[in-house]
Amino acid sequence: MKAIVNNIQKAIQKLNALLKKKKPKTFNAEWVKQNSKSVYAHLLKNFQTESGEVDWDSITVRIEPTFQKRWKRHEKKITAVAYEDKEELDFILAKYNDKLYTLIAPLCKEDKQTQDQIMIRLVRLAQRGNTLAKEYVTEFLTIIIYEWMENSNYIARWKGHTNGVEKRIEACIRNYRYSGGFMRYVFRSFQYFARGLRPIVSLNDKFLNGKKERIDYVIYEDSLCA
After folding, report:
1. pLDDT digits (tens, 9 = 90+) for 47-72
2. How many Å apart are CA 186 and CA 173, to the nearest integer?
3. Nearest Cα to 121, choosing from 140, 107, 105, 108?
4. Is residue 111 domain-shared with residue 189, that is, in the same domain?
5. Residue 15 structural domain
6. Which one in 55, 64, 175, 208 has a CA-CA gap of 20 to 30 Å to 126?
7. Which residues of the chain have pLDDT under 50?
8. Within a 10 A sphere around the Cβ of 181, how many other Cβ atoms?
9. Which pLDDT value is given to residue 1?
10. Is residue 22 in a domain?
């Protein structure tokens, strides 16, 4: 395990060193390959997705923050064809079987990092068109967002607008690229859109140490005509 950790650290150090030396305004996978085949090979060896590709999600969150902002994935925008592949989904879930609790109940910083890692894996499947992965992510994100509504002043405005939650989740899944952690991206997205939502109030809201309710201050049309 220690050897694996050391190899991962060395791979990131090599990439950071390359970026410091070349100082690119932006960079992507092709840039790394063209400027240092050995660094690219080292990254491929130590960071691989389940499909055998370079796991840039795991790499970009580890490099120096200055360079994180310069990462621009070069990719052709294509419309994914929807499909169902339970085996593809189960492969990832089995890999993180003993860590799936982190999806809704992370206990520490390491758990939150694992939560993000699992979510990103599933989001990539969903972006490729796997509808089962999309449904799985949506289910867990809905639970998390409802909890945010109760515990975050930023997200509380979504109360009363829950019919728009699933649509915003779908947008987050569809649009996420490489902008830091996925969960942070989702939180910021809901926070941003909350600014345009009108807060929903209850006529039973308490005032004056619970002696009055909002309904006590409502003026009825009949009383105006009396």
Report:
1. 887 777 888 888 888 888 888 888 88
2. 9
3. 140
4. yes
5. 2-68
6. 64
7. 1-2, 220, 223-226
8. 17
9. 47
10. yes
Instruction: Burial-class residue 158 by CB neighbours within 10 Å (0-12, 13-18, 19+).
Output: buried
Collapse the DSSP code of 77 into the 3-class scheme (helix H, G, I; strand E, B; otherwise coil) and give the result.
Answer: coil
Within 13 Å and on the Cβ side, how many CA atoms surround 91? 9
Q: Do 168 and 91 sit in the same domain of this protein?
A: yes
Tell me, yes or no, whether 118 lies in a domain.
yes
Is there a single domain that holds both residue 39 and residue 99? no
Let me know: does 11 contact 46? Beta carbons within 8 Å. yes
Dist. CA 44–CA 39, nearest whole Å: 9
Q: Report the distance separating Cα 10 and Cα 122, nearest Å.
A: 27
Q: Which residues, other chains included, contact 206 with Cβ-Cβ below 8 Å and sequence gap of 6+?
A: 212, 213
Chain-centroid distance, C-alpha 62: 16
Tokens of 149: 């509504």
Beta carbons of 83 and 48 less than 8 angstroms apart: no
> Using CA of residue 13, residue 29, residue 129, residue 176, what is the dihedral sign?
positive
Is position 20 within any domain? Answer: yes
Do 34 and 98 belong to one domain? no
What pLDDT was estimated at residue 157?
A: 86
Q: How far is CA 43 from the centre of its chain?
A: 23
Q: What's the rounded Cα separation, in Å, for the pair 185 and 120?
A: 11
Taking CA atoms, 43 is separated from 52, 105, 121, in Å, by 12, 31, 18
Give a yes or no: residue 203 inside a domain: no
Domain count, the chain: 2
How many other CB atoms are found less than 10 A from the CB of residue 170?
15
Same-domain check for residues 57 and 90 = no
Amino acid 224: pLDDT:
47
